[in-house]
Each structure stands twice: as structure tokens, then as C-alpha cells.
Amino acid sequence: MQKYILYFILLISFIRCKNSTQQVVKAVETPFIWENVTMYFLLTDRFFNGDTNNDVNFNRTQKAGKLRGFEGGDIKGIIKKIEAGYFTNLGVNAIWLSPVYEQIHGATDEGTGLTYAYHGYWTKDWTSLEPNFGTKEDLKKLVEIAHAHGIRIVLDAVINHTGPVTEVDTVWPKNWVRTSPQCTYQGYESTVKCTLVENLPDIKTESNTDVNLPPHLIEKWKKEGRYEQEMAELEAFFKQTGYPRAPKYYIMKWLADYITDYGIDGYRADTVKHTEEDVWQDFKKVCDNAFENYKINNPDKILDNNNFYLVAEVYNYGISGGRYFDFGDKKVDYFNKAFQSSINFEFKWNAAQDTYEEIFSRYSSILNNELKGYGVLNYISSHDDGSPYDAKREQPLESATKLLLSPGGAQIYYGDETARSLIIEETVGDATLRSNMNWNDISTNKKTKEILAHWQKLGKFRSKHPSIGAGIHKMISEQPYVFKRTYSENNFNDSVVVGIDLQVGKKELFVEDTFANGTKLIDFYSNTEVEVKNNKVTLITPYTMVLLEKKI
Fold first, then answer.
1. Nearest residue to 467 via CA among 489, 492, 486, 490
2. For residue 490, what pLDDT is reported?
3. Nearest-CA neighbor of 156 among 58, 47, 39?
4. DSSP string, 45-96
5. Whole-number Å distance between alpha carbons of 206 and 255
6. Rounded to two decimals, what is the model's pTM?
7. Number of Cα atoms under 13 Å in the Cβ half of residue 359
8. Which ranges of the chain have pLDDT less than 70?
């Protein structure tokens, strides 16, 4: 009897080991790599209204300028779209939300009509969630649901400034903020120690002097019954880190709480070039420590071994600058001990002026040399770029092809994939870029459906293949235009061959030595199976694009 029991135990152990091995192999086959991220950037207020009960708060009832008030979008709306598979079908593996912490209660007129803080960049209290966007329970659920779908959550870190002063929103103390001079952008100093615009108080991030909490926060926390708890946490933070009680470190602590409390995966840092570079080096330390503590305290919620992600918004940084941003009188390396990636403001110009090969080969060269170990986040439109690529949405298919097949990370701004209009009548300034997501077009407009289908195919192909954004590019033939991408890291190898602007119908593509003769491939775009013969494949499809991957 003991012999059979021993045999049974050994059999179970073998099965467990086999299953464990299979799980490891599966993880290795499809690693998530930030350098190949497909990140969906949305304005929380403009994406989808999941709860109409939170549409009005703090008596925000004054008439705002066109698209300058709260429109109802919220965290629950994002959750609903995740659960419906919208992001998965688009190949999205990270969502970047505009800031969700509590905003100023009043409105201000910047010469564009009254504006409320619907965009999230006018902070009143970093420790609270903006009720128009949802509750802390909503945010917790968002992260959990996103992770269950293999999607990372990236929040927006604003350290440079508070919200404007209004009739109901006081200015922060003078040892916290400056209200002048306004930035002139003539060099480093006139970009950093100044206010971005009039009535946008600038946090004194250069200060290392101890300051007390602003009276309005103390009063607010006491009314909300959490003053003692907040003070105890601050005491523990400053004791553990040894940092002075300077304004920037208070804010870093408050932002780190979103990591330890909710398990978010990264931050996009706002207005990076308007603060001293060492601010972001300290911020990285604080974030990394918080992320490690979260993983220790929540071992069952860890997605993988990736580090906490930090991507910089250094306005007008371009990939051609490599590691550096040039102020004219000073060059700064924001990657140094701080950011893993930086938003690439140059891409939209490259997309408009350069050929596919010029973009792909140059980006691959820079990312595998000057920026080795780092990344960029390419985009075609955003919430504050008044000169987007294809502003009239006349080339939505080409926009997808260039963005999603370019080396580097890809940032989809909500509605890029559905040709949401960027030209809205009666809007002033950047409000025209921030219309509500065009869900109705997806349901009723045939052309919109076709555009979205193209984005979905490219997005899902990209998410399956790290070689697209993080690999090495090589052109195989110029006419027809065919290239390959290869990626190899930690015993993981990935190779694809792509053809663009091919003829409809029959087409031949050389694959060089990428795939051996006799290898079965799938054209992901048409779902057509082919076999490599004489170092090439022949197929007939009604499309002008081919996305070749090895059949598994």
C-alpha cells in the first residue's frame, strides 16, 4: 500500500512540475515589455460616463465655455469599457488616466470662457480623489479589473503646480508656491523658477526648507475626520526617508500612496522641464520604494518582475536629442537615475515628413544605441498639442500604421482609433482636442468601424510581438516595402516580417533568413496561413498589408 501511495505522490509531483514548467514557458513566450507598450491615454472626464450620480460636485454649476466644464466621464466608465473588452480588442496593455485627485472647486477664465478643472491638472488636494471621477473604491476596482485583463494602470503625477486661485480656492502659502514671474522660456532659469501661465501657482520645488502644511488642508482634513491619520503617515514618511519637510516631498509622499494603496504600475510625470532634474531622481526613489513595499505586502497581486514605470513629459523633447533636452543655455539628461521613457514630441513631424523606412530605421538605431535601456513614447495627437499629425483625421489608417509599427512605445490618444474629430466648432484653444469620445460613431458609422478594425489588428499584433517596439529593425526590400523586426532577451526570441503598401490580391514577400524554408506562418492581418518556400511567401488577400508571424 505504501508503494502505491509513494507512486501517487510522485505522479502528482510530476504533474505539478510539468504544469509549473508550462506556466513558466507561457510567461516567457509573451513577456510584457515597457519599451513596446501600447498605452491608451484618456481624459477621464471625456471618455465614458459610467455613473451619472457624480456628474456635479462642489456646486460647479456656472456656465462654462464650450467643452470647458465637466462632461461626466468617470472611473466607472473606464471599468465598463475594460470589462467589455474594448482595450483588449485594441491591443492596449496600459491605460494612462489624466489626474484623478481632487481638483479646485471653482472656475477660472483664462480668456476662453469659464473653465473648470475637468482635465485634472489643477490640484486642490493630492490625498483625495476628485468626486466627479469617482471614489477610492472605484480606483481600487479599476486597478484590479485592469490587471485581471493584463492591462497596467498609469496615473499622472503633477508636482510642478497647484490649481489656480478662484473665489473658492485659496492660494497656497508663500513658502509653498510662487505666483510670479511668468515663464519666458529663454533658458533654463526662465523655464523652471516661474509660473507656466498667469494664475497657476508654481510649487517651489527647489526648496529644501521645512514648511508646515497649508492651513486650508489642515482645516479640510479635520472636517473630513482624517487629520490625525494623515499627520501620522507624514511623520512616518519623513522619518523613514530622512527628507526635509519641503513642498516637493510632501507631494511625493501623497503620490506614492497611490502605489502602496492601489498598486498602480506607473506615473506619467507632468511638466518635467519646469522643475529641477533632481526632483525626478528623488521621485523615482520614492516610487520604487513604494512599489517594492506594495509587492511585499501583496504577493498575490504582482503581475511580473517589471519595475515601476516613469515616463517624462518634457515638452518638445524629441528622440533625435538622445539622452538630452536642450534649453539653449543648458542640456539636461532627464533619463539619468529618473525616467525609463520620455514622450517623443518629434514623432508627429517625422510621421508627416519622412517615409516609413526613414522613421523605422532611424528610431531603431537610436533606441538600440544612444537610448539603449530606455524608451520613448510616440504619439500622433494629445490633449495639449495644437499641431497634431493629421489634424483633420484624413489619414486615420496611415496614422495607425505609422504609430503602431514604429520602434518605441505607442501612445493612443482616446479617439485616434475612431477618428474622433479634433476640430470642434465654437471651442477656444485646446478644448477642441478634448471632445467626448465618439462612441456613437463606433456603433453606427461604417467608415468608423473600418478604421477601428485596422487599429485593432495592428494593436493586437503589436501586443503579441515585443520585436515591434523593442526590437531591431531591418528593411528586406524597398519595392515592395518589406521589413523584419527581431528581439532577443532572457531566452525569449521574437521575429516578425511586415509588408506595407502592397498590391491587392496576389503578393510575394521575401523573408530572408527570418523564417526557415518549410516554416508555417500566419498573416495576422488577413488570418491567412502560408509556408516559406525559397525564402519567400506567396499569398492572396484583399489587403495592402501583411503581418507575418510564426504559426504556433
1. 486
2. 87
3. 39
4. HHH--S-GGGS--TT--SPPSTT-S-----HHHHHHHHHTTHHHHTT--EEE
5. 18
6. 0.94
7. 23
8. 1-29
